[in-house]
Write a structure and sequence with these properties.
heterodimer, A: mainly alpha, MetI-like fold, B: mainly alpha, disordered N terminus
Chain lengths: 289, 298
Amino acid sequence: MVLKGKKYILLFLSPAVLLITIFLYYPLGKTIQYSFTNYSNWVPKFDYIGLENYKRIFTDSVISKSLINSLILLAGCLIVEVGFALVLAVLVDSIKKGFRFFRMVYFFPVVISGAAIGLMFYLVFQYEYGMLNSVLATFGVEKIVWITEKSAMFLVLIPVLWQYVGFYFVIFLTAIASVPTEIYESAMLDGISGFKKTIYITIPMIKNVIVTSLGLVIAGSLKVFDIVFVMTNGGPLDASQLLSTYQYQQAFVYYNQGYGSAISVLIIVLGLILYLVTTKLSQSKDELY
Amino acid sequence: MDENNRLIPIRSVYKIKGSKIVKYIVLIVWALTTIAPLLWIFVNSFKNNDEIIGSAFALPKAYVAGGTIFQNFETLKRFSENNIFRGFFNSFVISGSTLLFILVFASMAAFVLARFKFRFTKLIKAYLIASMLIPQFAVIVPNFIIMQRIGQHVSGFQGSYLTVIIPQVAGLMNFAILMLSSFMADLPKELEEAALIDGASIGKIFTRITVPLTIPAFVSVGIMEFLWSYNDLLSPLVYLTKRYQPVTVLISQVQSLYSTDYGAMMAAILITVLPVLIIYIISQEYVIKGLTAGAVKG
């Protein structure tokens, strides 16, 4: 059926179009504009300073630290959230008892707020009352200072990875369940089973879902903010600083809106490049098959 | 043909000796990592510091002795401006309103995109959906400035609920438009056609036929949107004055507020997490459907 009526089209579409234009597209343009200015302290008078902010990005040692940290985080997310989640999904798909239980429990961290998870893990690693040190104490082992400059980045990585494994696990589980049984049957007749079945049939069959998930992981990992902000606030000494937490710090703590905007643009460009690389790689693999 | 009969031989080949035990060990260990921290928080939010340090995994002594175990929640109540229960109320006002606006506006847009064919349908749909790629932090500085400008003209606007509701509605509604429009497009058209022939207006068709039929999608999309809004930290942190801050912001400040009162911090986490977990456990199937549909389809 094709309905007609310009009045309704206009009336029904305008709230969504207006809101998204005013509060997403327009500010995106503004952010790009501000990245070329010395906008600071929320004073609306600013000058265009060309590429100064971008030059500063290349000389700022915190940027290189947070860029490395963001890439570590991304690598961790790709390996654990996609790799380990896939393993869990294959395992859960192959069992008969407890299917629903595991699916329910693995998804717990996904629905909890990052802020609560951040605080929870801050307390887990806390020196005096932390969960880990309590465990050590019951075994009579001496307490450990967990969050140090060296370890901070890897410790914030744990809750970030922990939170989203369940999400991709459920996506893969749904995808695996939708693979037609006939394919497994013919594979069985050919004598393919167990581990081989997973590698040669399940994974190729859900390849599209895996590629989509890679895109989601890339976008998601660059957005990670809450957990790190609450757990370490990028510290100690910027050891766990991410591009996202540094951008927040520049714009809302040091009041450098211009420089903060340039960091936002950097994150968006980085995300776009990574996304294009992944899609290209997954396409070229297609031709190999 | 009975499907079970076909499945059994395949699965039995899968069963190499001992592999089943290994499988279950891996699965149970991961399940423990998702449950243990929550249990640890739950038990310890009813204890004082000495007990947390002395016997972190035991039941609260006061509970065993029959005394009061809610001292941490009393502590949380005492902070007038940053009262966590007030934050809880704020959370529900913000996320409830955000959800309401999203469902109304997104379903209207989705209806047009699914049912009207005109020159720009595809273009407008692409424009609305592509906005999902714009991350929150890429727009937060300009949006903050917009909110300040409005605040200069409208008294009481700055730092109020609306300053966080409006950007959240704009930022989260694209997902709802995508999901609802694809659901509506799959609905049978006969009912709407019959109503049209009977002379019903398009507005009536929308409210009386399309919306009631879309309710299943409303539920799963709605739960997701509510959770995202409820769990959001960045925008309430930036826009709101203390009075209106939701529970996530209080959680992020609780370390400095209750510096060494670990029992109170655990209680704060429990209060934040519990409603979400209850919503999730009740509506599991909808949540999982709502979250994964987009990814598996794409």
